[in-house]
Amino acid sequence: MDEYRSPVRVSKLLSLMLRHRPEEFGVQVDGNGFADFDAVISALKNQDADIGAGDVKELVYKAPKKRFEIVDGRIRARYGHSFAMELGTEPIEPPEQLYKGASVSEVEDFLAVDRQYVHLSFDAAVALRLAEHRREPGAVIRVDARRAASDGIQFFDCGPTILAREIPGKFLSIEDTPETVPAGSVTEKQSEGPVTYGRKRRFRSRR
Question: pTM of the prediction?
Answer without folding.
Answer: 0.55
